[in-house]
UniProtKB/TrEMBL annotation:
Keyword Transmembrane: yes
Top-level division of the source organism's lineage: Bacteria
Full protein name: SPFH/Band 7/PHB domain protein
Residue ranges of domain Band in the record: 22-180
Compartment annotation: Membrane
Listed Pro residues bias regions: 368-379
Chief location: membrane
Record's bilayer topology term: Single-pass membrane protein
Region spans: Disordered: 345-379
Listed GO CC annotations: plasma membrane; side of membrane
Entry's transmembrane regions: none
Entries under PANTHER family matching the protein: STOMATIN-LIKE PROTEIN 2, MITOCHONDRIAL
Length: 379
């Protein structure tokens, strides 16, 4: 083949390939191509396969329609109390109009950065440091409102604005740490004091309740003890009354006489001599007169007769009617006789040859003694 013809063929193929490359445009998804014809906007290419006039139409810009995130470096901002803080921000935006984003502003990223910095200084300049540190949501809302309004004509929608960090000066950080430490210590002291106060209140209430319960217990104890003493005294008095009634009834039922009282007196004489202080015990010679005086005194005071008649009851047999009617009388008569004999022997031993005086106790079975001779008249 002719080399000239071959060269021409190769040039033609290359030209065809170049024309096809200039004619066919493939735009990726979520992208938009701005086409200019002789330097003037002609159309916007959507995603997919697009055909343009080669060497006449030119795709000037390929705009990304996805939401973009741009982080700006920290910017110094002065607060209302003249403190310089460094604030770095993050902007979330999206291109909604590729034509406006291309022809309304030269560099919308840089424009957003500068607009964010100026707006941030304007908002933070009206706040003090404490309010700036605690008002992130308010600052974000203010920035988003201003940026969205300003970038609307650029074909850009600001979706969200975030403050990454607010860094005060080192000296302010130290002061804030000291203030925070002091505040925490203060709260700790307050909580400790409140705990001690609550504990003291609970302790006092417990002591009060304990004292009340102890007082109520003491009162109940005193009341129960008084009731027990009253019941005991009543029962003791009833017992004593019953005992006195039984003894009194037994004495009246037994019908005692002077002989029984004399016998009881003789039985009490040895008990009189008992004790360490009784060294000497003198039996009076006039024992019969003493017995007679004792009997007469008892007779006068208690109204006990010298001789009793009728059935005599013993205390030991009190309550047994059969024994009272049979052997009790004989046994009591024997006892009285023994007492009379003992008194007569004692009188005879004290005064041998003397006759019993009037009122002396003598044996009822002994023969009658002649009356004593009359005393001689006085000279």
């Amino acid at each position: 083949m002719n080399p000239i013809l071959l060269g021409f063929l190769v040039v033609f193929v290359l030209f065809v390939i170049l024309v096809l490359a200039r004619t066919v445009r493939i735009v990726p998804q979520a992208r938009a191509g701005v086409v200019e014809r002789f330097g003037k906007y002609k159309e916007t290419l959507n995603a997919g396969l697009n055909i343009v006039v080669p060497f006449v139409d030119k795709v000037r810009y390929l705009i990304d329609l996805r939401e973009q995130v741009v982080s700006f470096p920290p910017q110094p901002v002065i607060t209302e109390d003249n403190l310089v803080v460094s604030i770095d921000t993050v902007i979330y935006f999206q291109v909604t109009d590729p034509i406006a984003a291309t022809y309304e502003i030269a560099n919308y990223i840089q424009a957003i950065e500068q607009l964010t910095m100026t707006t941030l200084r304007n908002i933070v300049g009206g706040m003090d440091l404490e309010e700036t540190l605690t008002s992130r949501d308010q600052i974000n809302s203010g920035l988003r409102g201003v940026l969205d309004e300003a970038t609307g004509k650029w074909g850009i929608r600001v979706n969200r604005v975030e403050l990454k960090g607010i860094d005060p000066p080192p000296s302010i950080k130290d002061s804030m740490e000291k203030q925070m430490r002091a505040d925490r210590e203060k709260r700790a002291v307050i909580l400790t004091a409140e705990g001690q106060r609550q504990a003291a209140i609970l302790t006092a209430e417990g002591n009060k309740q304990s004292m009340i319960l102890n007082a109520e217990g003491d009162r109940e104890s005193v009341i129960l003890r008084a009731q027990a003493n009253r019941e005991s005294a009543i029962l003791r008095a009833q017992g004593e009354a019953q005992a006195i009634t039984n003894v009194f009834q037994a004495i009246h039922d037994g019908q005692p006489d002077q002989s029984l009282l004399a016998y009881q007196y003789l039985q009490m004489l040895p008990k009189i001599a008992e004790g360490d202080a009784n060294k000497v015990w003198v039996i009076p010679s006039e024992i019969t007169k003493a017995l007679e005086g004792l009997g007469s005194a008892v007779h006068e005071v208690a109204g006990i007769p010298l001789k009793s008649e009728g059935v005599r009851h013993r205390v030991a047999d009190y309550g047994s009617e059969e024994r009272l009617a049979t052997g009790a009388d004989r046994e009591l008569a024997g006892t009285n006789k023994a007492v009379e004999e003992a008194i007569a022997e004692a009188e005879h031993a004290a005064h041998p040859g003397s006759t019993p005086a009037p009122g002396d106790i003598v044996d009822s079975e002994s023969p009658e003694q002649p009356p004593p001779p009359p005393a001689p008249p006085a000279q």
